[in-house]
Amino acid sequence: MKTRIPWLLTTVLVVASLGAQAQSESGKLLRLVVSTGTGTAVDVRARWLADKLTGVVQQTIVVENRPGAAGNLSAAAVARAPADGNTLLVAHQGLLAVNPHLFARPGFDALVDLVPVARLGVGPLVLVAGPQTSVRSLPELVQLAKAKPGALSYASPVIGSPPFVAAELMKSMAGIDVLHVPFLNAAITQTIGGQVAFTLDNAAVVVPHIQSGRLRALAVTGRERLASLPDVPTFAEAGLPGYEYYSWMGVVAPIGTPTHVVQHLNHQISAVLATEEARAWFAVQGVEPGDQSADAFAAFVRDEYATAGRLIRRLGLRVE
Description:
CATH architecture of the largest domain: 3-Layer(aba) Sandwich
Structural class: alpha/beta
Shape: globular
Number of domains: 2
Number of helices: 10
CATH topology of the largest domain: D-Maltodextrin-Binding Protein, domain 2
């Protein structure tokens, strides 16, 4: 039976809109709009990119947080923006690959209305529990959830986000019944505070809390352990063989943006991602920085779109 998720439960998908003129006049404003509050994984990466791009494009970049309905409103707005290189969208796969299959009316076509520009990295998520919970491992979490069906809850930034899909995949493979509670950009604080039992997120977000003792790491969604968390097993090592999930982010532009502008933007972003500083920053998160051409990223998005569609149908998820 398919799980029907009311639209009223939808919150904001971690996504952003970046204004950039690839070959503009000196001093042209670059606008980076993040559709969630500060502190989310995409917000952290978008602000990092904005800081590094400032020196490359020699222009002012303004970061603006603008919450919207699961990110769909922001994506639709960018899709309708002038295709002159002044408006870009920074998003993870939830918006570009998951939402088109999950939402009945997302308001945009990810493969038609947006042009892939550059990938901003691929990496695993970390499953974490709050200090108030008794569980100290993935098997203990699964055992507790099976003993109390429907009693446990988990948080994600929003329906359709990588933490949401990763948790729903875990629930399906482990055969557990756990309630999802979307908390905008407060999923981590709600987990720390004990309002929910667990969440998943990017290492850049959770590692500081793990090191401080405010969160307990249970497992990593990738096929290998993270260098920053060497004692934390993968899901497969922790007793869920075959489980594997990765989060990725990228930059896209409105349809109709000139090819030479897209290529120029790709070269600028790629130059930032190719630095040793960038590689070191991404390595801490267990993320491979983007190293694709615009065409290669477009092919990657199409493949991920198809893969996400199959997964969403298998999990029986749908937002009306």
